[in-house]
Amino acid sequence: MDPELRDWSSPFPGKAVARGIPARDVERWLATARPFLLLTRHGDGEGPVVGRFGGPLLLPAGTPTPFHPLVASVDLAALPADATDLPLPSDGRLLLFAFVEDEGDFTPTGSGSVVYVPAGTAVAERDSRAWAWSDEDEYQEMVERYPQGPLRATPRVSPPYHWLAELPQPPRWETLPGHPLARELVEVWKDTHGHIATWGSLQIGGHATEEVTESDPVAGAVSGARRAVEAGRRDAADTDSGDVSDWVLLADWHTDIDGWEGATVHWAIQREDLAMRRFDRAFTTVFWNP
Questions:
Q1: Closest-CA residue to 288 (of 146, 102, 148, 142)
Q2: Strand partners, 202
Q3: In whole angstroms, how far apart are CA 265 and each of 199, 221, 246?
Q4: Given a cut of 90, is residue 289 above it in pLDDT?
Q5: Could you report the per-residue pLDDT of 241-268, keeping only the tens digit for each?
Q6: Closest Cα partner for 244 from 173, 152, 191, 140?
Q7: Cβ 264 vs Cβ 217: under 8 Å
Q8: Residue 254 pairs with which residues in a beta bridge?
Q9: The CATH classification of domain 3-287, taken from the options 3.40.980.20, 3.40.190.10, 2.40.50.1020, 2.30.320.10
Q10: What HEC string does the chain produce?
Q11: Which residues pair with 34 in a beta bridge?
Q12: CA torsion sign, 210 to 200 to 144 to 76?
């Protein structure tokens, strides 16, 4: 494995072996690690500014105003090179939208959406409260508490936070294939990883995580997208295969909003759609354990 990953993941390997996990299982687990970017409002001077939470809603003419409120915008040209393994555009802005509650039964993209604005595209400011149905909208208090301010990026690497894989038939779940000690490895990782996905941060790429993670949150997005297709709310086109391996995590938001602490928003997308810049086909889910 990459020596930089081995050094950065310390003391995980030693503690895993000390708990009786064979070194070969630890090595196989670390081989599944993925790079990601941790974006935070804290730590002035630590990493470049690559975007911001909140801000004005700037969209090209002809782009529909999203149903969900703006969470953050990311300047793709400012991201450190090779900081993720996602085939992201080299420039332009990625706009992330979401409610911090599960609205997956109402829209074709779940509880949020993604808009990509290519570099050089003319934009105009839209009403940032267009999502509200009225001045007394039930989500008004929530959205008013969304964070605001610049985001700085720090490269990180992590193996999975989950240890179960979903099966199409009963018993429905099994330990991740090839990793019989996945549950034990996840427990050690949670005890030793330090500040990986800190509350209040935005994560670009990598493995999805949330407060209680047994199965891959990306699998939940795949299931949600499939249900939306079956209900006629989402166009299946020639994608939406239903195979989790065809999907990747685009972003996670680990919220620290007063009243909604611990909620995590997941934006997932099929690899094919990401490569073709079809960000409108991303699917968003929310995990919250009040």
A1: 102
A2: 39, 253
A3: 12, 11, 20
A4: no
A5: 788 889 999 999 999 888 888 899 999 9
A6: 173
A7: yes
A8: 264
A9: 2.30.320.10
A10: CCHHHHHHHCCHHHHHHHCCCCHHHHHHHHCCCEEEEEEECCCCCCCCEEEEECCCEEECCCCCCCCCCEEEEEEHHHCCCCCCCCCCCCCCEEEEEECCCCCCCCCCCECEEEEEECCCCCCEEECCCCCCCCCCCCCHHHHHCCCCEEEEEEEEEECCCCCEEECCCCCCEEECCCCCCHHHHHHHHHHHCCCCCCCCCEEEECCCCCCCCCECHHHHHHHHHHHHHHCCCCCCCCCCCCCHHHEEEEEEEECCCCCCCCCEEEEEEEHHHHHCCCHHHCEEEEECCC
A11: 158
A12: negative
* Residue 142 confidence (pLDDT) above 60: yes
* pLDDT tens for each residue of 40-95: 986 555 678 999 999 999 999 999 999 999 999 999 999 998 889 999 999 999 99
Place of tokens 């050094």: 7
Lowest-confidence pick of 10-14, 120-124, 186-190, 269-273: 10-14
